[in-house]
């Protein structure tokens, strides 16, 4: 047979792929599948559902204990040349504007007495409503805080003070406080001895409030 009679060779593009080519094609397909799968997982994580709830900001604020009086810096009494049998009265109004309920107590500090004058100077303190500093007009007594010689009046601290007033607490922002008026009355015993001539007695009255 001549060379012209041999059958023609099949084109290269129509040849069947070898085993190596088939293996590479399969590996490439798996790689694409894994990559595609990873892409799906990332997408679902990025778009995850969520929900939350919150309570408004929590805060704490302290209360107050506040006491003032209407003496404008002046002493209740500054009496000179007192003689046996002499007496007098003056009032002072104390106001509580603190928000916390408190126990208000009255006590004295720095009691000073020469020649035993404090033993003969009688002191009566009453609590009530009405009146104001140095003027007891309109005062109505509701109770007696103390009645005795000045020398025996409680002088030291809050714990030993005399209490007849418990505040209920003023609401925050309220301009109206709670008030009590105290009337102080003194009398120098008519039988005070001559040994007290030229003597001096003094004390600082203190109101203090403490909440429970």
Shape: elongated
Structural class: alpha+beta
- Terminal Cα separation, in Å? 129 Å
Instruction: Output the radius of gyration.
Output: 49 Å
- In DSSP terms, counting alpha (H) and pi (I) runs of 4 or more, how many helices? 2
Quantity of strands, as a count: 8
Helical content (DSSP H or I, runs of 4+): 10-25%
H/E series: HEEEHEEEEE
Quaternary structure of the protein: single chain
Average pLDDT: 85
Structure description:
- The protein contains 2 helices and 8 strands, in the order αβββαβββββ.
- With 212 residues, it is an alpha+beta fold.
- It has a domain at 67-211.
- The strands form 2 sheets. The chain has a 5-stranded antiparallel β-sheet with strand order 1-2-7-4-5. Strands 6-3-8 form a 3-stranded antiparallel β-sheet, with no helix packed on it.
In summary, what is this structure?
This protein has helices spanning 19-46, 117-120, and strands spanning 67-69, 87-96, 102-113, 121-129, 140-149, 162-166, 178-188, 201-211.
Features:
single chain; 212 residues; alpha+beta; 15% helix
Task: Outline the fold blueprint.
Blueprint: H1 19-46, E1 67-69, E2 87-96, E3 102-113, H2 117-120, E4 121-129, E5 140-149, E6 162-166, E7 178-188, E8 201-211
Antiparallel strand pairs: 1-2, 2-7, 3-6, 3-8, 4-5, 4-7
